[in-house]
Structures are given as structure tokens and as C-alpha cells.
TrEMBL record, chain B:
Coiled coil: none annotated. It comes from Streptomyces luteolifulvus. PROSITE patterns: ABC_TRANSPORTER_2. This is ABC transporter ATP-binding protein. Keywords: ATP-binding, Nucleotide-binding, Transport. Residues 342-354, 361-406 have a biased composition (Low complexity). Residues 311-413 are annotated as: Disordered. GO terms for molecular function: ATP binding; ATP hydrolysis activity.
From TrEMBL, chain C:
SUPFAM superfamilies: P-loop containing nucleoside triphosphate hydrolases. Keywords: ATP-binding, Nucleotide-binding, Transport. It comes from the Bacteria. The lineage of its organism: Bacteria, Bacillati, Actinomycetota, Actinomycetes, Kitasatosporales. Residues 2-227 form the ABC transporter domain. SMART domains: AAA (SM00382). Belongs to the ABC transporter superfamily. One of its GO terms (molecular function) is ATP hydrolysis activity. This is ABC transporter ATP-binding protein. Pfam families: ABC_tran. It comes from Streptomyces luteolifulvus.
């Protein structure tokens, strides 16, 4: 069984369902629209900011503000790619065709990751460009130090969020269960943990908070984060790997 | 009693049911047959007032369904076994239905017992198998102890024990004087269950008569005759004598003869006169399936067939004889093919046209994707070394398959 | 060829499949029968490597399923017509299966044509009726032109024309020397299709025998005779030690007798026979007799009572 065959097959699968187009389009549109809106608002608020806040003003990071919502669509994409197999019963047909479960799972994830990477990069660059246009005189330039890293990092961040969701979905199998856990986790729990002083130190090791560090160009004045941009992405990567290993272990062990 | 008069249903341009008039009488099981897409479900839905007829009307006991006083106690129906809220317990599902029509709760437990679901009454129905869902649907139909019952494919998903049970249930419901109207695709099942048949095709009435009459009208009775296996010449002798006496003789798969046009005693006499001993002489009636196929052959919507299967075409295993075509034993070609229609292949002939090269890239010379001669078939099984004991004949035969295919009567079965 | 050896599957306490050993041979249609819950589907899933046996072994042409290179070219299976993504078109569903096993696209068109779905190839599978879904599943099984085919309830939802077609398809696949393994609840259909039967109940093997032997062993068979020389025939048959029962209108029933022997006897004694028909119980009867103890959900045999409760509320 050549892995390339399975990759082609998974590409056919992913491009032939409507949910792929929907979830990815929503991710792009929401990220861009919200990013532009917040960039525009930030520009008009700039004059009211305190000195410290002005020192921490990060035009690059602000243009990525839409990702807090846009990543939810990426999570849905990642979950559906994997758990649709289970919820439709297709998994039995798929595993009968590709009994090597590792090949099956990782071909699927590779294809979906590739697609998410393309969409994530395009979104990241687009939201940066549009956001900076909104920021007018306060804008950052792609040639400024750290900005290109942040923009590429934004694309990687969206991709890794999707891959993490795939791993979780492979462990949990059910789309409702996976979304029911991931959505509140990233939208609420991570925020709460990050904003309550007692839990902040724990919160910043969560995948989204650690990963989003790479999109910051200007370090906040009172920042005491124990890792840098790439360190943060590394922490996120560890989460992703853990989810994938867990997903593979479940698929390998359990009956289809 | 269900009565349809000039019942017609159009969806836009498409006429699903056209000018259908029939009566379903009490005290008998009436089968409702027709190919997929012939309008059976639409008719059932109109009977139950779920769809409005474009023209004509259908009444139950003289009233249209929606005007029936207390309809749930007069009519019970199983239309779609999955039309149940999956998260609800089986018992609660029935209880909610019962409460809607003022049926006491103990009747719920009664019908659960009748369909054999009492042990799983407290389970959520989404964990149910198709067969269990079907039993739950039947329980709901029986709930109001109705005089009129409609079942759409009731044995779907049931196991043999369940099938037998449904068959007996329907018969006994009819024996109690109720009206039982049941649709099914399973001819052998209908033959055992129904007393009367209503057959539709393309939305129009094709037949409305008793099962017995239906079979006689649409097929011929025949006699099965077997002569001693040990002396094949006796078979030839009898065969020609029977033909000489005006009978029509066809060979059957197992070596017996199928004789039409002669009564049994006459066959017996001819055998005696020609000095042929008989090992079997039995009267047979064609099956309901055969009769049905003859009647509806012009009215099939989705036509499967022709396995043009150039790829599935391989030489017969060594020693196998190309079988003689045997009528009525599931062999294609027994039913006269209908006039060719647009887009459709002649009915029930899963075989290639003799004389035409089979199409397809699988070892066929004329297929659109066929590899040029000499080039290995890209799709041919790569016959891994020593790994495919089941393909001993296939691999070496592959190159010769194209030449053999059109003449080999592989496709004549 | 499919070989099962000591195949066992436990889910916790419950034993779904218990020490099954049998071989499905090539060139014939082998029917796989058993009541609901007997373990048929579990067995089929284990053949395809979807479920792992607790003990024992299944081999496809001598190899484990997950050691097959491009398995769809060895064994095609229809397990569940709904085992597909409803949002995908019929064509794309088959295409992704074909690609995973290196089967060319042209074969997808071919099998769609074979099952009669070409006209709806671009339609999404969720709009399909049960019968159409079934046809799509059958197309998937045929995709790799495999030597072994396995079908679970293949005629479910098909109309009579489809049932007839499926029956012929299975027979012709077997006649080409392929292995055909098919489960069904429809005894009358099995009787017309299968040559050999494997029957299980509560996970255990109950029978592994030819169709004819199965019916013979599990039911009463007799020969029905009509003759104008009833008395003479009775004498002759009694003399030969055959038990004969007289039925109404001049019909005799010879228990357990062989029609050919009676035919020879009659010929020797110059007795004219107007009927000589071997009668056998149906496969259904034979099956019921064999599996009577291993049925899971027993329906009550009585019919819904139009009992006192009915009168009570009907009056109100």
C-alpha cells in the first residue's frame, strides 16, 4: 500500500465534501473581518491610551485579533475532517480499503494539514495587510524586525490549532463531543485561566496562549512570560504531538 | 376498507400517481407491489393524509383520513421505522403517542409485549437495530387497536424469526376482520402472506386481483420431469416424444425437464409408451416473482444491470461446463426482454450482447480505456510472487482473456 | 478463500463469537445465516480486520487482512449501505476508495454502470434511497475486481428487479470461480442463491453444510404420489418397507422415500403414476428448527388482543 495512493484518496475525500469549503471560508472571512474591525477601532482609540499602553502597542498583533474567532472555524474544520468518518460510518469502508491504520490516519492528517497551512498562511498575510491598512499611520511594515516572523507564525498557529483538533477528534471520535470540549476550552476556559491571576501561570502553557506568542512583535511592558515566540510555538507543538499520539493510539487499539 | 378513486398526484411536471382507483377490503391481507419509484409510498402517504392528492380522493371507511373521527384508533401505520426520536425510550415513545389519542398506558405495555420489546422498553431507541426499530414501529401501528393497518416494508431488517412473526401477525390481523394493506419488495414473502394484490407501475394501476389469479394470469404452470440419471438417452427420447405430442420442453439446471402444454397424466402416458421410467413428475406453478417481473417489466425506473464486467470476465474454472440456460431459475433471459427504452438495457439481462465485444478496459479489446495490445493491463492484479493462491488461473489467463471473452459464454449465465 | 480458525470475540462478559472454525470456498455462493445477535456482523467485521479477535485467526487467501497489499483487489465487501459520507457524491465516494488502492478512475465509471447508478453518479449519497445506497455499496465491493466478495444483507431495500439482479450477480461471480460469502435474513432468497450454508447461533457454529443436506437434515421430506392404481402401488410400497400416508383426493405421501426408487418400483410393476413429486420443507422451516433455542428477541405469538381495555376506552 503506497502511502501516496492513500494521500490522493484523502485529497479526494476532503475536496468532495461541502463542510471543508464552509469551515475554511468562514475561518478566512471571520479572521479578516474581525481583524479589520479591531484594527480600525484601535486606530481611533490610540490617542486615548496611556503611556504604558502606547509603549505596548503592537500593530501586528492587533491585526491578528480576528483569529480568536477565526480559530474556532479551524477547530471545526479539524474536528469534522476526522470525526466525519465515524459519524457517517465511512470509517469501516475506509479501514477496509486501508487496513494500515497509521497510514490511514496520518495520510488524512497530512492532507488536511497541508490544506490548513495554505489557508492559514493566506489568511495570516491577508489579515496583516488589511489590518495595517486600517491602522493608517500607526501601522507596522512587513520589513520591521519580527513582523515577518509574526505573520508566518500566524499561519502556523492556525494550522496547528486545526491539527490539534484532528488529534483530539481521533481520540474522541464523536464530532459533538469533540466540539463540545474544544470550543468552550479555547473560547472560554483558556481566557478565564489566562485572566485570573492565580491561574495565569498555568494558563499560558495552554496551546493557544503559548502558540499565539509568536504573533506578538512588541513585548508588553510588564511581561514575565518564561518563553519567547518560538518557545511558545514549541509548547504548542508538543500539545499537538500529544494529541496525535493519543489519536493514533486510540485508532490502533479500538475496534472500528 | 380503503377506497381510492381517481387518485392523482403531481409534483411539478412529474406525475407520481395517475388516476388510481382501487379498494382494499377488510378480512384479507392486500399486498401492494411495484418497482421503486412507481408511486407506492406516495399513495400510502396520501391514504394517511400526509400528502394532498392533486386530483381524486382516497377514503378510509368513507372518510378522508383528516376527517376521520379519532383517526389513531381506526388506522395504524408503519411507514418509516426510523421516524422515531432517537433519544427517547421505546416505552416513552409509545406512551407519548398513546397520550395523544387517549389510549391507556397499559396498552403500551401490551403492544411492547406483542412485538417482543418488553425487555428493552427502557432503552433509548437510537441504540436499536433496524429490526428492533421495525418492531417498535409495528408496536406503534398496533397501539390504537385499529381496524385498518398499513405497513410499508414491514420485514425490513428483521431476522427469520421476526419475518415469520410478522407474516403470522398480518394474517391473524386479517383473520380478525381487519383491513391489512402491506407493501413489500420481497415477492416470496408476499406470496406467503398476501391474499390479494394491487400492483402499480409508473403511478398507474397494473393489476388488482387475487394472488392466485395473478400468478396464473402472468405465467404458465409447468411440470418438472426427471428421468434416470444413469441413462441420459432416456431423457432425449422422452424429450422428443413430448415435443412430438405438442409439449414445450426446456432443460433445467439439474438435468430435469420443464414441460409446459401437457397435463401430468398425459406426460405419464407418453413416458409409459416410450418405455421411459420416471424419477420425478411434479406439478409446479411459477413463482410470484416471475409473474411480477413479467407484468412490471416495462415500468422499472432504476435499471441495474448489465455487468458489462469485461474485468469480471475470466475463463470458467477448469472442468466447468457453460451451463444451459434454465428458465425460471433466476437465469436472465427467461423473462422476455421488453422493447428497448431510452437509456435502459433490456430488462433483467445481466449479460453482454452476444456477438458484441464487451466494453471496458478490463482485458477487453474495444474498451475506451483499454491498453494497447501487448502493454500490460494497468489494472491487472499484480500477482505478488507466491502470494495469491486464489488466482492460479487468472494470472496466466489474463492475456488470452480478450480473445476468449466474446465467445466464451461466461456472460450467458 | 476465507479461513476462520477458532475465531472468538468477547465484549467484556458477553461472548459475541465463540470459537468459530470454518472455510468459505471459492466457486460457490456460501450463505451465512443466524438469528439477530448471533454474531454474523461481528464475524464479518473481523474478516475485514475492523474488529480484532479476542482469540483465533482469520485468513484471506492465507494472509491476514492487514497484510494484503491493496486489499480491495483481493476482497470486496458490502457491510453496511450507510457506511459512507452522505455529503459526498456517489462518484467521489468510489473514487476515493479506488485511489487508495491504486484502481484507475475508469473502473469507477464501470462499476457505477454495473449497478445502474450512472445517472445519479454526481448526486450526494444522502439523497439516496436505501436501495440506491445498497447499490452504491455493491459498486464499492466490485471496485477492485476482487476474487473474494462478502455481502451483508445485500438485497435490503432493493426492489424485485434489483433483488433478481443481485441474485444473478452473486451466482455469476461464483461461477467465475470467485468466493462469495453472503449473509441474509431472507430464507427464500438464500434458498435461491446459496450452494453452501454456514449457520451460527449465539456465536457458535451450528451447521456448515451444503444447502441440500441442510434442508434434508433439518426437516421432514416426503414424496407426493398420485396414481390411478392406488391399491397396487400401496401394496408394492408396503412390500418395499416404505411408510405411506394417505391424504385426501387420492394423494399418497411416502415418508423419507426417494422419488427415483419409487419411480423404478412403479415401472417394474407397470404402475402408472400421475404425479411423483419430492417435497421438501423450505429452508426457512429448516432454519427455524435448527436455531429455535438461539433467538434473542422473541415476539409473543399472540396477536394484539382486542381485549376488554379496548371496549372500555372505545366507549368513551
Amino acid at each position: 500500500m503506497a502511502a501516496i495512493q492513500v494521500v490522493r484518496s484523502e485529497w479526494t475525500k476532503i475536496r468532495s465534501v461541502a463542510s471543508t469549503v464552509w469551515t475554511l471560508s468562514i475561518a478566512v472571512v471571520v479572521t479578516l473581518a474581525l481583524g479589520m474591525l479591531i484594527s480600525a477601532l484601535s486606530k481611533s482609540e490610540f490617542d486615548n491610551l496611556s503611556r504604558n499602553e502606547r509603549l505596548s502597542f503592537d500593530p501586528t498583533f492587533i491585526s491578528f485579533a480576528g483569529m480568536t474567532l477565526g480559530q474556532l472555524a479551524m477547530i471545526v474544520f479539524g474536528v469534522l475532517v476526522v470525526s466525519n468518518e465515524y459519524s457517517t460510518g465511512m470509517i469501516r469502508t475506509s479501514l477496509a480499503a486501508v487496513p494500515q491504520r497509521g497510514t490511514f490516519l496520518f495520510s488524512k492528517i497530512a492532507v488536511a494539514t497541508g490544506l490548513a497551512l495554505v489557508v492559514g498562511m493566506v489568511t495570516s498575510f491577508a489579515t496583516f495587510v488589511l489590518g495595517q491598512a486600517m491602522l493608517g499611520s500607526h501601522r507596522a511594515s512587513i520589513s520591521d524586525q519580527g513582523v515577518l516572523r509574526a505573520v508566518i507564525g500566524g499561519g502556523l498557529y492556525m494550522t496547528l490549532i486545526a491539527v490539534f483538533s484532528m488529534g483530539v477528534a481521533a481520540m474522541l471520535r464523536s464530532p459533538m463531543l469533540s466540539l463540545g470540549i474544544l470550543m468552550p476550552f479555547f473560547f472560554l476556559i483558556s481566557n478565564i485561566l489566562g485572566n485570573v491571576p492565580a491561574t495565569r501561570k498555568v494558563g499560558r502553557f495552554l496551546p493557544d496562549q503559548a502558540g499565539s506568542r509568536i504573533m506578538q512583535v512588541v513585548t508588553p511592558v510588564d511581561d514575565d512570560t518564561p518563553y519567547g515566540p518560538w518557545g511558545g510555538l514549541g509548547i504548542m507543538l508538543l500539545w499537538v504531538l500529544a494529541a496525535l499520539v493519543g489519536g493514533y493510539a486510540v485508532l490502533k487499539r479500538r475496534d472500528a | 376498507m380503503i377506497e381510492a378513486v381517481g387518485l392523482t398526484k403531481r409534483y411539478g411536471d412529474k406525475t407520481a400517481v395517475y388516476n388510481l382507483s382501487f379498494q382494499v377490503r377488510p378480512g384479507a391481507v392486500t399486498g401492494f407491489l411495484g418497482p421503486n419509484g412507481s408511486g407506492k409510498s406516495t399513495t400510502m402517504r396520501m391514504i394517511l393524509g400526509l400528502d394532498n392528492p392533486t386530483a381524486g380522493q382516497v377514503t378510509i371507511g368513507g372518510y378522508p383520513y383528516r376527517k376521520l373521527p379519532n383517526a389513531p384508533r381506526q388506522v395504524g401505520a408503519l411507514l418509516d421505522a426510523k421516524a422515531v426520536h432517537g433519544g427517547r425510550h421505546a416505552r416513552n415513545h409509545l406512551l407519548s403517542l398513546a397520550q395523544l389519542s387517549g389510549i391507556p398506558a397499559r396498552r403500551v405495555d401490551e403492544v411492547l409485549g406483542v412485538v417482543g420489546l418488553q425487555d428493552v422498553a427502557k432503552k433509548r431507541s437510537k441504540g436499536f437495530s433496524l429490526g428492533m426499530g421495525q418492531r417498535l414501529g409495528i408496536a406503534a401501528a398496533l397501539l390504537g387497536d385499529p381496524q385498518v393497518l398499513l405497513f410499508d416494508e414491514p420485514v425490513n431488517g428483521l431476522d427469520p424469526e421476526g419475518i415469520l412473526w410478522v407474516r403470522n401477525l398480518m394474517k391473524s390481523l386479517a383473520a380478525e376482520g381487519r383491513t391489512v394493506f402491506v407493501s413489500s419488495h420481497l415477492m416470496s414473502e408476499m406470496a406467503l402472506t398476501a391474499d390479494h394484490l394491487i400492483v402499480i407501475g409508473r403511478g398507474q394501476l397494473l393489476s388488482d386481483m387475487s394472488v392466485k389469479d395473478f400468478i396464473s394470469a402472468n405465467s404458465a404452470d409447468f411440470a418438472r420431469v426427471r428421468t434416470p440419471d444413469t441413462e441420459p438417452q432416456l431423457r432425449e427420447k422422452l424429450s422428443s416424444a413430448l415435443t412430438g405430442a405438442g409439449g414445450h420442453v426446456l432443460p433445467e439446471q439439474d438435468g430435469a425437464l420443464r414441460v409446459t402444454g401437457l397435463p401430468l397424466p398425459r406426460i405419464s402416458d407418453i413416458a409409459h409408451d416410450t418405455d421411459v421410467r420416471l424419477w420425478e413428475l411434479s406439478p409446479h406453478q411459477a413463482s410470484l416473482e416471475e409473474a411480477y417481473m413479467r407484468m412490471t417489466q416495462g415500468a422499472v425506473d432504476y435499471r441495474s444491470t448489465i455487468d458489462q464486467k469485461a474485468g469480471l470476465m475470466e475463463p470458467l474454472p477448469p472442468g466447468a461446463q457453460p451451463p444451459m440456460p434454465v428458465p425460471g431459475q433466476g437465469q436472465p433471459g427467461w423473462y422476455a426482454p421488453p422493447p428497448p427504452q431510452q437509456g435502459g438495457q433490456p430488462f433483467a439481462m445481466p449479460q453482454g450482447q452476444p456477438g458484441l465485444p464487451p466494453a471496458g478496459p478490463y482485458g477487453a479489446p474495444a474498451g475506451p480505456g483499454a491498453a494497447p495490445a501487448g502493454q500490460p493491463n494497468p489494472y491487472a492484479q499484480p500477482a505478488p510472487q507466491g502470494a495469491a493462491p486464489a488466482r492460479p488461473t487468472a494470472a496466466p489467463a489474463q492475456p488470452s482473456a480478450p480473445a476468449a471473452a466474446p465467445t466464451k459464454s461466461e456472460d450467458a449465465r | 478463500m476465507i479461513e476462520l480458525e477458532g475465531l472468538t470475540k468477547r465484549y467484556g462478559e458477553k461472548v459475541a463469537v465463540n470459537n468459530l472454525t470454518f472455510t468459505v470456498r471459492r466457486g460457490i455462493v456460501t450463505g451465512f445465516l443466524g438469528p439477530n445477535g448471533a454474531g454474523k456482523s461481528t464475524t464479518m467485521r473481523m474478516v475485514l480486520g475492523l474488529d480484532r479477535p479476542t482469540a483465533g485467526d482469520v485468513r484471506i487467501d492465507g494472509r491476514h487482512y492487514d497484510h494484503l497489499h491493496d486489499p480491495l483487489k483481493y476482497i470486496g465487501a458490502l457491510l453496511d449501505a450507510k457506511a459512507m459520507h452522505g455529503g459526498r457524491s456517489a462518484f467521489n465516494h468510489l473514487l476515493c476508495l479506488a485511489q487508495s488502492n491504486g484502481i484507475p478512475k475508469s473502473r469507477v465509471h464501470e462499476v457505477l454502470d454495473t449497478v445502474g447508478l450512472t445517472a445519479v453518479a454526481k448526486k450526494k449519497a444522502k439523497g439516496f434511497s436505501l436501495g440506491m445506497g445498497q447499490r452504491l455499496g455493491i459498486a464499492g465491493a466490485l471496485l477492485g475486481d476482487p476474487r473474494i466478495l462478502m455481502f451483508d444483507e445485500p438485497v435490503n431495500g432493493l426492489d424485485p428487479e434489483g433483488i433478481h439482479w443481485m441474485r444473478n450477480l452473486m451466482k455469476s461471480l461464483a461461477a467465475q470461480g470467485r468466493t462469495v460469502f453472503v449473509s441474509s435474513h431472507l430464507m427464500s432468497e438464500m434458498a435461491l442463491t446459496a450452494d453452501h450454508l454456514v449457520v451460527i447461533g449465539q456465536g457458535r457454529l451450528l451447521a456448515d453444510t451444503s444447502m441440500a443436506d441442510f434442508i434434508e437434515q433439518n426437516s421432514r421430506s416426503y414424496v407426493r404420489i398420485r396414481t390411478p392404481q392406488r391399491e397396487r402401488l400401496l401394496d408394492v410400497l408396503h412390500g418395499a418397507g416404505t411408510t405411506v400416508v394417505e391424504r385426501g383426493n387420492g394423494t399418497l405421501e411416502a415418508d423419507g422415500g426417494k422419488a427415483e426408487l419409487i419411480g423404478e418400483l412403479a415401472a417394474r410393476h407397470q404402475i402408472v403414476l400421475h404425479e411423483l413429486s419430492p417435497q421438501q420443507a423450505s429452508l426457512e422451516e429448516a432454519f427455524m428448527r435448527l436455531t429455535a433455542e438461539s433467538v434473542e428477541y422473541h415476539a409473543h405469538s399472540e396477536t394484539p388482543p382486542a381485549g376488554p381495555w379496548g371496549a372500555e376506552w372505545r366507549r368513551s
